Amino acid sequence: MGDWNLSIGTLSEGAQSRLADMLDNAKCGWRQLANVVTEEPRFRCSENEMTSCSLQVLSPTGSPSRYLLEKLSERSCTLGFLLHCLKKMEHHEAVQYLTANVMERFQITVQPQAQHATEGGRVVLVCKAIGPAAMGYQWFKGKEEVMRIVRQPRPQVVAEGDSLCLDCFAEANPPPQYQWYHNKQPMPTDKISTLRILCVTTADRGMYSCRVFNLYHEVWSDQVHVKIGESGASNVFDVYPFSSYLNFLLFVKATDKVALLMGNMNYLHHRPLRAPMADVHEMTNLLRQLDFKVVSLLDLNWQEMHSAVTEFLLLLDRGVYGLLYFAGHGYENYGNSFMVPIDAPASYTSENCLWVQDVLQRMQERETSLNVFLLDMCRKRNLNDGVPPQPGQLKVTANIVFGYATCVDAEAFEVNKDDLSNGIFINFLKQRVMEDEKVTVMLDRVAEDMGRCEITRGRQALELRSNLSERRALTDRIQSSGCPETTSARNLQWAIAHVLPKSRNLQFDCGVTVQLGFAAEFSNIMIIYTRILENPKEIASCSAHLTDFTEGLDMDLKMSNQENLLDAGSLLPMEILLPAELPGLYTRLKGLQRLKKELTFTVCLQYKYTNLDEEVHERQTVTVGKPLVSKLNLHEPRLPRSYSASSSFDLHSFSHSSSFPEESGHCVIYSNGDKWNCRGKNKSRKIDIDPAAELCQGLKDFTSEELQCLRKVFRPLDFFHLFLRYNLILKGIK
């Protein structure tokens, strides 16, 4: 029988990770657990600890629930008390898993045997055991730990076109390297602990494992099975028990959830603001926990705001929840709201701003299931503006929610707290946004909270406008639509704007190895960090600085190459990038949306030999392409497009249509089922359009002329536009 008086920390890494997976949700997850454990005062989490929990989502492998379990373990929380709390939460799946894991005893079936070996020879020691499915092995040489896998990869069911992430982490000295295997064949990836495939196809299904090794030791991870299906729920019975699946279906409301968050602070001709950066950062963190695809952007000019909205609309489709949040200067005339870009002139009018009602109309044309606008801006009247523009006829959709930070003809205020500033609106909204309530109910509670605040009473009051007729909440779960192609297209389009350069190691002539790493703070702000991995004994001191960046970036040289993220101007916690015991230098790059060329910079290594006072410099130039949102070229004007519902592409109905010729430059493209003919001046060739996510792979061999023709023909058809655009970017076609 299991011992329920043992600490949570006695659970295997695999078991803790599995529990964390079950608790990483908004409805019955880690926040509810943190509430329940407070019946024992010593387990109560402070506000800072709860914030640290939520910030774990910013790490590619982070888990708020795992962080909370570690905190409870540090305070000697027993397995019995954890079980009691899970029962009180009525988290039946976690109760069942924990009970089975604790009650199942370990039994070693094969013991390692003593061996005699010659120096330089090979020794293989074998140990096998039966017990909980997620158990792990840890080897010791005497009392010294040899090599231990602390995080095993887990089986997954992934939809075509989605991203796959497998993680394996080991502790060893010297630091280990990782080699991933797919169906027992080595994969040509970097030797790092995380395997990422951005757009999976059926060719990626099968068994995965990881070989972990260093100069002296080698261990293998568990073999895990990755299934690729038409949608994420196609094989849900393989992962969840039937009762959980019924619960999943019962609450599914959205086909996807997408959010565009814009914060403008550094205005050229107006008073700068402090709150938008912290506000957008808080909202990004919270919405990601609710499974929103978040695009977060700071300090946008007029063109960049218009382009960002156009890209945002491409991510919307029938059944999707769309949320737009703006923090910055704004105004309202005759019921029309306007968001002010950072380059607006001193006496701006509607022509210099972004018109909210126009964005709403374009969102409606996408047939979204929920349109939420959270406008954290002033609503004073603009006397410079004359006759307001007249919006087109809005559809009666009963799915619109406007949450204004303040009422008509009033201002919105900021709160200064230490060096961090929050808007009043977000200061209260962040405490309620995770609640599993209808959006309007949640915002009503925020309004009540603001009304009890003495600072804002009589000066700022939240105003809610809505025609929402259904019970739709930001916490609603996602069920993919019946068309996996559109889901894959949306995932791909979002992924284009969120690709980070790969971490790399730079070898210098003096023998020093420098690690270069990258992290995203916002969709247009990236952190680059450097740290010394290897340092020869004859070198007394060394550091790696970044200089000579590509022109056009918004960066303060005085805040580059800082020893901590706070000094670099970042809100990211230090532990997200590097553990405290691994010092490095941090540089923050802003305004990536204005990057017109590939990002290039110089790594300057400065070092001193033990017997010399003179400092020596070595340099290496690094090019990392166009990271994050810079790939979208938001600085370029967008052509007007029609976003009517009729332009949405339905592969299943369209593939059975008759011939559909259309002139496009020197090529004519004809449809015949799912085959397309491309006829140029001197040639005719048949093009196979694969209606699945492999379309990306299928287009790589097309000529530039053919791709340009396809792009023009399918411009009204969003699905093809997304894939074609991605491939045109890869081929460098503008």
Automatic annotation (TrEMBL):
<dbReference type="GO" id="GO:0004197">
    <property type="term" value="F:cysteine-type endopeptidase activity"/>
</dbReference>
<feature type="domain" description="Caspase family p20">
    <location>
        <begin position="255"/>
        <end position="382"/>
    </location>
</feature>
<dbReference type="InterPro" id="IPR036179">
    <property type="entry name" value="Ig-like_dom_sf"/>
</dbReference>
<dbReference type="InterPro" id="IPR011600">
    <property type="entry name" value="Pept_C14_caspase"/>
</dbReference>
<dbReference type="InterPro" id="IPR011029">
    <property type="entry name" value="DEATH-like_dom_sf"/>
</dbReference>
<dbReference type="InterPro" id="IPR041077">
    <property type="entry name" value="MALT1_Ig"/>
</dbReference>
<dbReference type="InterPro" id="IPR033540">
    <property type="entry name" value="MALT1_IG-like_dom_sf"/>
</dbReference>
<dbReference type="InterPro" id="IPR013783">
    <property type="entry name" value="Ig-like_fold"/>
</dbReference>
<dbReference type="InterPro" id="IPR003598">
    <property type="entry name" value="Ig_sub2"/>
</dbReference>
<dbReference type="InterPro" id="IPR007110">
    <property type="entry name" value="Ig-like_dom"/>
</dbReference>
<dbReference type="InterPro" id="IPR003599">
    <property type="entry name" value="Ig_sub"/>
</dbReference>
<feature type="domain" description="Ig-like">
    <location>
        <begin position="132"/>
        <end position="227"/>
    </location>
</feature>
<dbReference type="InterPro" id="IPR052039">
    <property type="entry name" value="Caspase-related_regulators"/>
</dbReference>
<dbReference type="Pfam" id="PF13927">
    <property type="entry name" value="Ig_3"/>
</dbReference>
<dbReference type="InterPro" id="IPR037940">
    <property type="entry name" value="MALT1_Death"/>
</dbReference>
<dbReference type="InterPro" id="IPR029030">
    <property type="entry name" value="Caspase-like_dom_sf"/>
</dbReference>
<dbReference type="Pfam" id="PF18703">
    <property type="entry name" value="MALT1_Ig"/>
</dbReference>
<protein>
    <submittedName>
        <fullName>MALT paracaspase 2</fullName>
    </submittedName>
</protein>
<dbReference type="InterPro" id="IPR001309">
    <property type="entry name" value="Pept_C14_p20"/>
</dbReference>
<dbReference type="GO" id="GO:0006508">
    <property type="term" value="P:proteolysis"/>
</dbReference>
<dbReference type="Pfam" id="PF00656">
    <property type="entry name" value="Peptidase_C14"/>
</dbReference>
